[in-house]
From TrEMBL:
This is Glutamine--fructose-6-phosphate aminotransferase [isomerizing]. GO terms for cellular component: cytosol. Gene3D superfamilies: Glucose-6-phosphate isomerase like protein, domain 1, Glutamine Phosphoribosylpyrophosphate, subunit 1, domain 1. InterPro entries: GATase_2_dom, GFAT, GFAT_N, GlmS/AgaS_SIS, GlmS/FrlB_SIS, Ntn_hydrolases_N, SIS_dom, SIS_dom_sf. One of its GO terms (biological process) is protein N-linked glycosylation. Residues 282-423, 457-598 form the SIS domain. It is an enzyme of class 2 (transferase).
């Protein structure tokens, strides 16, 4: 949620800030702003409700008015996803006082009390944000101590909540200060200067050397040097890690949207993730530990991947698995101890609810296993063990290749557990894994090959107020993910239903022309699903049937068909979801939606 970039060095800062912010817009995009030190005018702040492009325009207007180019080599920038205070010019970051400019990711929980106290001390508040309290508090302590580190340290002692701060002190024109708690922030060292950023894509064009700031560490960033201060006084120059992503991986490579590019990357993501999980020590981990319960905790799409994990583990290994929505985990007061396993699934590894669930599981003594896409993320670092999904950077807000990678891990876990329990012979397990590594990627490619046909089908949804997804068994779980994808990027209301459950109430919503996407990938369940399809069809539904061998489906049961390649039925989620993602994608494009940055959403939800 929200993106931060900062640069200080020999180059002009504005292009760096704009480029960094544009690559971070997937984290939030309802307002943006920059603060920088102009060599002639001193500290300047440009911010506005809207996209980064509007700040570019604002800067160009400023240059026109001044009759000269801005000349600045140090600055910070922010792109916002509003939490406290609506998107507006005043609520945008940076928040600037007389001495301090600050950008913030996270939420300050005790901001109301801080505002009250600071108002008593004479501070006036211009915005409705929690962040302004932090800016004023640091300003207050800076005026007392005249030392940035002491001021930051004193302020964070009083701040409750989560934060990554990028801070400029106006009388130190080439320095950036940074600190974080429960919200990620990296420091990066480049040839022409140094950076802070909330995520790697922001700095990827300039350097591949980065350091992940730890909780409570304070950093000073000058053009030539980055220094990190730990509480207690010790300071050090960080040891940098190398970013292994390529710039290309974080760019569109000729695709009109990241989402389409990322769907095309699914075959590769499945293959790479399979190698990653097979080369991990996961088999030994399960062999060495007997668990009383296995629990999967995640949010959104990642939670839907968890549902596939539960289904397959129960089917193949006959081990019961619980799946929790991370934001509800603590309220269910889960019964956990040292013989229980909690698997956290998260693309970003920074989802606040998933982190909170992980911490609760650890508090209760459970074993924790993270399935994450971002190495070094909070979930990755705090869990006892980690399996890395190798989806590569996922930029589009709608999760696609991360889901395929997450279910890849879920399948491997279920197969390995089944083998360890003697429910699959080594030969059977290997055959399943072999199919996962070879036939599944090829089958996904085949589905992607039908994208033109799916694009034409998307036209059927344009004016529909509501769409239903139905299925049985695995298809019922897939329906939830298909429905989420459609609603999040097209803004069409949609619901996922167990096919057999429709007639217990919801079928009353089916009227002439209501689209129903019927998933029927399991031959054993086909007849029963077909009865449910007929139930909605006779009430006027426009049925889109998604199944293998679609050409042979009785034309009277459906209006349109999407055929899936022949594959072991257990692996149908890989192909069916690619078709549903493409359908959602093309519908969003036809409706003129901002596919990669749907309204009200952000890629990484770092608030609870
Ligand atoms: O980064 P995470 O996997 O923890 O994110 C969890 C959800 O916010 C995420 O899967 C969300 O539902 C997707 N953007 C939906 O496409």
């Amino acid at each position: 949620m929200c993106g931060i970039i900062g640069y200080t060095g020999g180059s002009q800062v504005l292009p760096k800030l704009f480029c960094g912010l544009e690559s971070l817009e997937y984290r939030g995009y309802d307002s943006a702003g920059i603060a920088f030190y102009d060599t002639k005018a001193g500290m300047l702040c440009l911010k506005e409700k809207g996209r980064v492009s509007e700040i570019r325009t604002l800067a160009a207007g400023y240059e026109r008015d001044m009759g000269r180019k801005i000349d600045a080599h140090c600055g910070i920038g922010h792109t916002r996803w509003a939490t406290h205070g609506k998107p507006s010019d005043l609520n945008s970051h940076p928040h600037c006082t007389s001495d301090v400019s600050l950008v913030h990711n996270g939420i300050i929980e005790n901001y109301a009390a801080l505002r009250e106290e600071l108002s008593r001390r004479g501070y006036r508040f211009l915005s409705e944000t929690d962040t302004e309290a932090a800016a004023n508090l640091i300003d207050y302590y800076y005026k007392q101590t005249e030392d940035p580190i002491s001021a930051i340290r004193a302020a964070i002692r009083e701040i409750r909540g989560s934060y990554a701060f990028g801070i400029l002190f106006h009388d130190r024109p080439s320095m950036i200060y940074a600190v974080r708690k429960d919200s990620p922030l990296i420091l990066a060292s480049g040839e022409d200067g140094n950076y802070i950023a909330s995520d790697i894509p922001a700095i990827l064009k300039y350097t591949d050397q980065y350091y992940r700031l730890e909780e409570g560490e304070i950093a000073t960033v000058s053009p030539a040097l980055i220094t990190v201060y730990r509480d207690g006084g010790a300071s050090f120059t960080p040891e940098y890690e190398k970013i292994t992503w390529s710039v290309d991986a974080a760019e569109k490579e000729g695709f009109p949207h990241f989402m389409l590019k990322e769907i095309h990357e699914e075959p590769r993501a499945v293959r790479d993730t399979l190698s990653s999980v097979l080369s991990s020590d996961i088999e030994a981990f399960f062999a060495e530990n007997e668990f009383d319960t296995i629990n999967i905790v995640a949010c959104g799409t990642a939670m839907h991947a968890g549902l596939i994990g539960k289904f397959m583990t129960e089917k193949l290994a006959r081990i019961p698995v619980n799946v929790y929505i991370a934001s509800e985990f603590r309220y269910q007061d889960p019964i956990l101890g040292s013989r229980d396993l909690v698997i956290l699934i998260s693309q970003s590894g920074e989802t606040a609810d998933t982190i909170a669930a992980l911490r609760l599981a650890k508090e209760r003594g459970a074993h924790t296993l993270a399935v994450v896409n971002v190495i070094g993320s909070t979930v990755a670092r705090e869990a006892d063990r980690m399996i890395l999904t190798l989806a590569g950077p996922e930029i589009s807000v709608a999760s696609t290749k991360a889901y395929s990678s997450q279910i890849t891990v879920m399948y491997v876990i279920s197969i390995k557990l089944a083998e360890l329990r003697g429910r699959l012979s080594p030969g059977e397990a290997n055959a399943l894994l072999e199919e996962l590594g070879s036939k599944v990627p090829a089958a996904i490619e085949e589905v992607i090959g039908q994208k033109e046909k799916i694009r034409l089908l998307a036209g059927e949804f344009l004016q529909c107020p509501s769409v239903f997804f139905i299925g049985r068994g695995l298809d019922c779980l897939l329906a939830s993910e298909g429905s989420l994808k459609l609603k999040e990027i097209t803004y069409i209301h949609s619901e996922a239903y167990a096919a057999g459950e429709m007639k217990h109430g919801t079928i009353s919503l089916i009227t002439d022309g209501t689209p129903v996407i019927a998933l029927a990938t399991d031959k054993k369940l086909f007849e029963k699903t077909l009865s449910n399809i007929k139930e909605v069809k006779t009430r006027g539904a426009k049925v889109i049937l998604v199944c293998p061998d679609a050409d042979h489906a009785d034309p009277s049961v459906c209006d349109f068909r999407i055929g899936l390649p022949a594959l072991n039925e257990s692996y149908a989620p890989f192909t069916a979801i690619a078709a549903l993602q493409l359908l959602a994608y093309y519908t969003a494009v036809l409706r003129g939606c901002d596919v990669d940055r749907p309204r009200n959403l952000a890629k990484s939800v770092t608030v609870e």
